[in-house]
Amino acid sequence: MELTQLEYFLEVARMEHLTKAAEVLSITQPALSHSISKLEAELGVPLFERKGRNLKINRYGVMFSKHVERILQEVARGKQEIEEYTHPDSGVIHLAYLSILGVDLIPRLIRDYQKMNLSITFELTQGDKGAILKQIEDGYSDIMITSEKPVNDTYEWVPILSLPLYLVVSSEHRLANKSSISLGEITGETFIGLKHNCSLRDSLLTRVHQMNFTLTSTYDAEDLPTVAGFVAAGLGLSVLPKTAGLNLEGLRWIPIEDEGWHWEVGLHIKNERFLSPATAKFVTFIKEKTSAFSS
């Protein structure tokens, strides 16, 4: 049973004349007659009493038409809802992002975008790297902002900002008064690390391996704010980006002398994933304004 068959049936029921209904529907009378006959064969009952080209809807037709009208109304409502939901100027953007980015970057992005697109709304999901990646893979979010570049070509990477990483110690730590430091100097220090679900962890381990020294984590925290809290309490030192939500009282931020110690944040777009017009427009906005976010 096809949607066009149902539309044809309702028009014939309204006109009760094959030729006139065919003219309204812009199809041939034989094609319309064949469609109605096919529908009746599928239902197993006649829907009309025939007198030449004149038709009279029967009790089965009346019974069936009530349901068809509701079906077509729901289809029309569904189409309208999708059009409104995906409209580039009034649609909904489903965005997943790392929790720490919700303190500053994400609110700034949304604020700046909605200044120019007042009717756009956002459905937001925040979490660690595993949680937000699952949102993308399961199709609940369209795009993701994170701090870990894709490891293959499944995703497109759009860089948004790059922030320097600092060695973070408590104000009472023996290194607190240093103006800068090479990370080779912290070998043997108590280090506050990150669990596997934090995207900064893998980046740190790669850099440490390249510098040929080791870090021994005494504590592995769930997220960056927890790391900052442990460091501020004097339980160890760590490496963090100096971003909103981490600059706690009692911390000292020491610039790292070694090259390459930066924290990158970017947009992940799954290749071959359908993006609604509203989402595609937001992606274009990010690509055009990348330099502004890093300023």
From TrEMBL:
Residue ranges of the HTH lysR-type domain? Answer: 1-58
What does UniProt give as GO cellular component? cytosol
What InterPro entries does the database record attribute to this sequence? HTH-type_LysR_regulators, LysR_HTH_N, LysR_subst-bd, WH-like_DNA-bd_sf, WH_DNA-bd_sf
Q: Answer yes or no on keyword Transcription.
A: yes
Similarity annotation:
Belongs to the LysR transcriptional regulatory family.
Query: What is the recorded name of this protein?
Result: DNA-binding transcriptional LysR family regulator
Keyword annotations of the record: DNA-binding, Transcription, Transcription regulation
